[in-house]
């Protein structure tokens, strides 16, 4: 078992949150791709289809699809099924507005490729005030 | 982010708490984007019609509560003033004429009607369509807009040369109250040049051809890229570009494309790339078209069709007329439904023209204001749908847990008449 790894980037929405990582290299569709009541991915061809991000740290490239992206994640917050934090790599208006209205810590522009470092199930501490993601690998 | 004195005053509450909350949202959003400033806009398309799905989670049943939460991300319920910018309601949850066909309860109907009245009272134009450019909101080249609805954004950016990013409900709500939006992304000239050169080596002519091409390009380009189409030999019309853009904005995040010689900002391939070399070169031929077709039909196995949906994005009068002609002397199968969706304004014209009656006589319904994906409704017991829209067949199976067939308008009308899908791969 290895020790924690620290990735540093740009913190977007302030705050600190911890949770299990849910990692995908595929961008996530919000409206039509997410069911907000349980925070489940429903896009039929997405590799995470059927899985929930509720309470987890979603590590993903970013947002794709409909302009309803922010509205869907906004709704997941109101329904208590939002991710604990978001770590992503590609900025666009959908993800920017999405992280703002989800009110969870979010970090991007990391100094290392998060997909090379973080695996689903790793424990993450996202400190958006300092722009840090601290990765504690799950015992394998 | 740098604010002007006027913007700073709005943020500080000079125009009231709701405008301050709107400015606060724009500042938070702009700073995440890394925008240096805001830009003025007097053309905002958003989505502020709310039913129980939205009001139940607000903690207060008033329309002000829904707007404060869902349209502004405000910290508490505020009194919302009339909008400042010219503001337009996009597609919404309900057809005010055929709401019973949707299966909506009276209480839900009443709540959405009240929400419409609230929007109208605040000066939001009730266009109720995903295609504002069909019914009078036709921005000009270079006009800074703040639009939601990815299919409309890609249309006005590309075909008309307007400038908007894909905005969301909260940013358009804030733009309506302030007349401002972050100056970022596609508002800047230097971000509007081509990145991907798509060499089209197979004829692209019909609506289906354009939908397939768009769907394939979206998958290739994903979120980062402005495709430039080379090899288009037949000038497309509004319907084809509407289908193309909607498809490309569904499978990927295409917000702008260029068809040199046809769309607004590029007379040649060189101009589309502003003299630079394409970052990526792609080729679209018969194999790619087949792959897109198979992907779009990947959710369906049963050939018994319960619903045929036409009008995603909302149908033009021409499409409605085509459906009427294809139905001539035929009737929709007793086990199927045929629903055609259009903007409310065009439904009125279709009524004047007799198209609505002709559809009704054939057992079809001409609906407006909404669609099955936005409103989340289907005929009771629906397991299989068919549509001529790549976008609708991309979304509806995921949202409503049904199988979906994609094909031509003629194949779709045949499916409604026979109750059976008999589409043929191109």
From TrEMBL, chain A:
Residues 29-107 form the Phosphomevalonate dehydratase small subunit-like domain. This is Predicted aconitase subunit 2. One of its GO terms (molecular function) is lyase activity. Keywords: Lyase. InterPro entries: PMDh-S-like, PMDh-S-like_dom. It comes from Geodermatophilus ruber. SUPFAM superfamilies: LeuD/IlvD-like. The keyword Zinc does not apply. The keyword Lyase applies.
UniProtKB/TrEMBL annotation, chain B:
This is Predicted aconitase subunit 1. Keywords: Iron, Lyase. The keyword Iron applies. The lineage of its organism: Bacteria, Bacillati, Actinomycetota, Actinomycetes, Geodermatophilales. One of its GO terms (molecular function) is lyase activity. Residues 1-414 form the Phosphomevalonate dehydratase large subunit-like domain. The keyword Lyase applies. It comes from Geodermatophilus ruber. Pfam families: AcnX (PF04412). InterPro entries: Acnase/IPM_dHydase_lsu_aba_1/3, Aconitase_4Fe-4S_dom, PMDh-L-like_dom.
